[in-house]
UniProtKB/TrEMBL annotation:
Location of the Zinc finger CHC2-type domain: 87-143
Region (Disordered): 1-21
Protein name (database record): CHC2 zinc finger domain-containing protein
Cited InterPro entries: DNA_primase_Znf_CHC2 (IPR036977), Znf_CHC2 (IPR002694)
TM stretches of this protein: none
Signal peptide location: none
Domain of life: Bacteria
Record organism: Dokdonella ginsengisoli
A family per Pfam: Zn_ribbon_DnaG
Length: 147
């Protein structure tokens, strides 16, 4: 006999089990650690408002490892880049004997795309997928040059 599953959300009359305060979850998350690694611990005063704001500096992407340095360190057998800046190599996300992964070595975002398994994204997404990290953890590693 199939029992109906309990529904949660608006209009259901129930709340999620073991719900905690979302502010406490944010305070304890690694995302805040990532912010602190990029910006320091103190909030900055905004030029538009009188109150302090917590936003990433506009130049945080400039502090990441350059895509050519990063990809050459993590993809064995990466080819020389084409005139458009793309290089090919084996994809580390599946058993690859061909060069199905294309990576952008000259643009700051460092895009990647595998023609076999279909994964793609930018340099941060590659690091997140490679090590199973959160966005904040990947950014911290890339900013510190640990990747």
């Amino acid at each position: 006999m199939n029992t109906p599953q309990k529904r949660f959300g608006p209009g259901s009359g129930s709340t999620l089990p073991e719900a905690t305060n979302h502010i406490d979850r944010i305070r304890n998350s690694s995302a805040l650690d990532g912010y602190r690694a990029l910006c320091g611990d103190e909030p900055r005063a905004s030029h538009n408002n009188e109150h302090a704001t917590r936003s990433l500096p506009k130049s945080w992407r400039d502090r990441l490892l350059h895509p050519s340095v990063y990809y050459r360190a993590h993809i064995a057998g990466l080819s020389k880049p084409s005139a458009s800046g793309w290089a090919v190599g084996p994809c580390p996300f599946h058993a690859d004997t061909n060069s199905s992964l294309s990576v952008q070595l000259t643009e700051t975002r460092g895009g990647f795309r595998c023609s076999h398994c279909g994964v793609g994204g930018d340099l941060i997404g590659f690091e997140m997928r490679r090590l199973g990290q959160s966005f904040a953890e990947a950014v911290i590693r890339l900013v510190r040059g640990c990747a």
